[in-house]
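Quick one, probably user error.
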C-alpha cells in the first residue's frame, strides 16, 4: 500500500515505470510484427477457394488452378503498387512473374485477385472474362474466381508471413438432371444438352465486387458437361435465355431431335450460387421439376417451371408451299412455318430470274426436319440470293446435299452487295448435316459467300468437298460471330485439276479472305470434331491448307477455340495447323487456342497453331499434341508453327503438352519478334 502511494505520487518514478511498460509493449508489438511480416518484405501467397458453407467440415479448399492475377494497390503512382502480376502454381507453390514487395508492415493496401490470369487486364476495376461456349470437356475453364481485400494491413492479416487469398465464385453454376418418358423405351441416348442465351463476356469490378454483362446484345449457347448418367453441368452468367418466354435448355437426342425447355417467368439467379434443375423429357412435353440450390452457397430456390416439346415440320422430299405471312420488311419479315415453305423458298429463288426476294427479311417459325431427303440448295449458278434470315433459335435437322459441281450447303451461294447491304443469317442451328460435293466449295450453311454476317449459329454433322470445305462455309469473305461447329470436314482432292484454286479445309470455313471493305472476321467461335485433307497426288502448283478454325485465312480471327483433330494424309507441301493451316498477309490473330491433335506427313509444314503464317499474333495458345513425323522431308514441324515467314510477330503466345524433341518454330524465315513460351 505504501509502495503504491509512493509510485502514484512521484512523477519521475511514474514516468520511468510508464516508459518501461511502454517499451515492453513495443517489444511485444515488434515481436508480433516480426512473426507475421517477412523480414525481406517479399510478398508470398497461398490461394484457396470458398466452398459451400453447408460443408461444415471443409469451409474452403486449395485452389488448384495453374495461375492467377494479383493487384497490390497503395494508390496511384506508388512504387509498391503492382498491376495484374501473374502468379504461377508450381505444385502448390505460388511464384510471381515479377517480384512484389510490401511497402512496410503497417501501411494499408488494397489486395485484389482473380483467376485465371488474363493478359492485358491492367485495371482491377474492369477485368473482362469470356465464358467458353463449349464446356463438354469440363467446367473448370469457365470458373472465374475473385477476391477483394481493401484496407489490408500486412502485420495484422498475413498468416505465416503469407498473403492468404480466398477466392469466391463469380458466375452461376447449373446442374441438370434428366429423366425420360416412355416414348424412348429403354434407350435414352443424349447427344448434347445446351444452355441457351447466356452472356458471352462479363466485366468484373474487383474493388466493388460487382459483375456486369459486357455485351448484352450477344448471346452465348453453352454445350453442357456430362458429369454422370444423364447429369449435365455448366458455369455461366445469366442472359436472355433466362428471361420469361425464352428457350432455356435444349436436349438433343442421338437422332438429332431436339426437346426444348422454356420458362414462363424470369429466373433470378445470383452470382456465386449453384442450382439444380430436374427435367423430364417425355413424348408430349418436357417438365421442369423442382429447382434447388446445391454446393457453392445454400438456400436459393427458383420454383417450378413448365416446358414443352416443339414438334418438327417434316419434309417429304418433294412438297413446296408459298410463304403466306409477312411482307419481307425488317419489322414484318416473311414467316417460314413449314419444311414445305422452306423448300418453296428454294424453288422460287432458283426459278425466278427477277428474284423477288432480294434484300428481304425472313424468320423461321418452326423446327424443320428435312428427313435426309436430297435437298436442292437455295440459289444456283445464275441465281445468287441476297436475304436476311433469322433462325429464331430454331433447328434444321437431317440436311442432305449431294452436288456434283460444287457450292453445296443449305444455300448454294449467299451474298450481299456491300458492307452496308449484307446478307445475314442469325440464331440458326443445323444438326446432323450431310453435305457433299465433287466440286469446289461446301459448307453446312453455304458453299460460297460474299458480304455475309453469320451470327449465333450452330452446326453439327459432316461436310465433304474436292477443294474447299468448312463446317459452316466452304469459302468466301463472311463475318462469323459467336458460332459453333461440331463437324467432320473432309477434302478429297483429285489427282489433277484445271481449276486455279487452293485446297483448304477448316472447322468453320475452308478459305476466308478479306472482303473489299475489310470489315469481315471470325470472332468468338468454337470448333470440335475432325478436319482432314486427302489427295491422290496433287500437282505441285496447288496450295493445300488444313486447320481447326480455317484452312486458309486472310482475315482477322479473335477469341476462338478449336478442339478439332487435324489430319493431312499426303506427302506434298501441305500447311497443317491446329488453329489455322495458313495465315496470310494482313491478318491479326488474337486470344485463340487449339487443343486438338495435329497429324501430318512427310513434306508437310506442321504446327500446333499454324502450318504457315505471317502477320500479327497475340495471346495464341496450343495445348494439344503433334504426331511425331520422323522424316519431315522438304517440310518442317514446330510445336507452335511449321513455317514462319515475312513479318511474323508474336506477343504473349504459349504452348503446353510439349514434345521436347520438336523446335518451337520448325522453319523460321521471319523478320518479327517472337514471344512464344511454354506454359
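Nope, works fine. Designed sequence:
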Amino acid at each position: 500500500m505504501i509502495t503504491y502511494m509512493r509510485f502514484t505520487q512521484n512523477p519521475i518514478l511514474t514516468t520511468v515505470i510508464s516508459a518501461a511498460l511502454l517499451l515492453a509493449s513495443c517489444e511485444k508489438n515488434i515481436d508480433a510484427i516480426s512473426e507475421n511480416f517477412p523480414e525481406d518484405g517479399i510478398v508470398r501467397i497461398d490461394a484457396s477457394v470458398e466452398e459451400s458453407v453447408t460443408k461444415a467440415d471443409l469451409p474452403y479448399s486449395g485452389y488448384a488452378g495453374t495461375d492467377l492475377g494479383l493487384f497490390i494497390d497503395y494508390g496511384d503512382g506508388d512504387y509498391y503498387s503492382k498491376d495484374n502480376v501473374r502468379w504461377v502454381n508450381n505444385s502448390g507453390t505460388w511464384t510471381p512473374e515479377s517480384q512484389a514487395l510490401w511497402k512496410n508492415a503497417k501501411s494499408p493496401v488494397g489486395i485484389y485477385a482473380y483467376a485465371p490470369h488474363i493478359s492485358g487486364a491492367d485495371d482491377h476495376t474492369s477485368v473482362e472474362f469470356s465464358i467458353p461456349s463449349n464446356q463438354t470437356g469440363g467446367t473448370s475453364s469457365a470458373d472465374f474466381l475473385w477476391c477483394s481485400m481493401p484496407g489490408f494491413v500486412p502485420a495484422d492479416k498475413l498468416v505465416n508471413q503469407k498473403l492468404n487469398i480466398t477466392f469466391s465464385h463469380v458466375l452461376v453454376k447449373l446442374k441438370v438432371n434428366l429423366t425420360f418418358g416412355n416414348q424412348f423405351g429403354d434407350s435414352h441416348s443424349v447427344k448434347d444438352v445446351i444452355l441457351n442465351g447466356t452472356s458471352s463476356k462479363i466485366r468484373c469490378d474487383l474493388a466493388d465486387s460487382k459483375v456486369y454483362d459486357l455485351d448484352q446484345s450477344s448471346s452465348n449457347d453453352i454445350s453442357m458437361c456430362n458429369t454422370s448418367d444423364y447429369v449435365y453441368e455448366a458455369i455461366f452468367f445469366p442472359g436472355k435465355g433466362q428471361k420469361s418466354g425464352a428457350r432455356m435448355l435444349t436436349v438433343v437426342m442421338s437422332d438429332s431431335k431436339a426437346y426444348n425447355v422454356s420458362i414462363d417467368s424470369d429466373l433470378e439467379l445470383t452470382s456465386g450460387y449453384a442450382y439444380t434443375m430436374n427435367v423430364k423429357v417425355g413424348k408430349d412435353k418436357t417438365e421442369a421439376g423442382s429447382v434447388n440450390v446445391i454446393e457453392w452457397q445454400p438456400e436459393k430456390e427458383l420454383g417450378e417451371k413448365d416446358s414443352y416439346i416443339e414438334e418438327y415440320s417434316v419434309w417429304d422430299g418433294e412438297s413446296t408451299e408459298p410463304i403466306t405471312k409477312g411482307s419481307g420488311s425488317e419489322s414484318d419479315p416473311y414467316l417460314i412455318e413449314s419444311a414445305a415453305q422452306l423448300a418453296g423458298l428454294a424453288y422460287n429463288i432458283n426459278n425466278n430470274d427477277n428474284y423477288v426476294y432480294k434484300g428481304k427479311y425472313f424468320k423461321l417459325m418452326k423446327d424443320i426436319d428435312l428427313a435426309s431427303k436430297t435437298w436442292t440448295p437455295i440459289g444456283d449458278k445464275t441465281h445468287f440470293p441476297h436475304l436476311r434470315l433469322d433462325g429464331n433459335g430454331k433447328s434444321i435437322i437431317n440436311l442432305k446435299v449431294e452436288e456434283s459441281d460444287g457450292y453445296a450447303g443449305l444455300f448454294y451461294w449467299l451474298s450481299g452487295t456491300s458492307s452496308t447491304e449484307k446478307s445475314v443469317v442469325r440464331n440458326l442451328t443445323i444438326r446432323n448435316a450431310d453435305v457433299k460435293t465433287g466440286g469446289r466449295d461446301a459448307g453446312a450453311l453455304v458453299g460460297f459467300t460474299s458480304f455475309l454476317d453469320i451470327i449465333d449459329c450452330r452446326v453439327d454433322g459432316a461436310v465433304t468437298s474436292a477443294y474447299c470445305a468448312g463446317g459452316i462455309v466452304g469459302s468466301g469473305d463472311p463475318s462469323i460471330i459467336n458460332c459453333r461447329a461440331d463437324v467432320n470436314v473432309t477434302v478429297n482432292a483429285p489427282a489433277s485439276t484445271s481449276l486455279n484454286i487452293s485446297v483448304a479445309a477448316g472447322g468453320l470455313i475452308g478459305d476466308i479472305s478479306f472482303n473489299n471493305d475489310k470489315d469481315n472476321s471470325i470472332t468468338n467461335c468454337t470448333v470440335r470434331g475432325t478436319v482432314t485433307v486427302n489427295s491422290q497426288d496433287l500437282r505441285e502448283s496447288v496450295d493445300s491448307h488444313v486447320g481447326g478454325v480455317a484452312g486458309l485465312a486472310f482475315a482477322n480471327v479473335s477469341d476462338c477455340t478449336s478442339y478439332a483433330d487435324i489430319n493431312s494424309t499426303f506427302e506434298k507441301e501441305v500447311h497443317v495447323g491446329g488453329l489455322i493451316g495458313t495465315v496470310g498477309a494482313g491478318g491479326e490473330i488474337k486470344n485463340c487456342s487449339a487443343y486438338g491433335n495435329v497429324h501430318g506427313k512427310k513434306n508437310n509444314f506442321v504446327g500446333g497453331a499454324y502450318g504457315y503464317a505471317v502477320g500479327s499474333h497475340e495471346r495464341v495458345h496450343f495445348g494439344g499434341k503433334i504426331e511425331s513425323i520422323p522424316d519431315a522431308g522438304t517440310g518442317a514441324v514446330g510445336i507452335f508453327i511449321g513455317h514462319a515467314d515475312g513479318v511474323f510477330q508474336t506477343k504473349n503466345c504459349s504452348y503446353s503438352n510439349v514434345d521436347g524433341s520438336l523446335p518451337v518454330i520448325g522453319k523460321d524465315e521471319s523478320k518479327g519478334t517472337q514471344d512464344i513460351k511454354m506454359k
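Confidence is low (pLDDT under 50) at residues 1-32, 52-59, 303-309.
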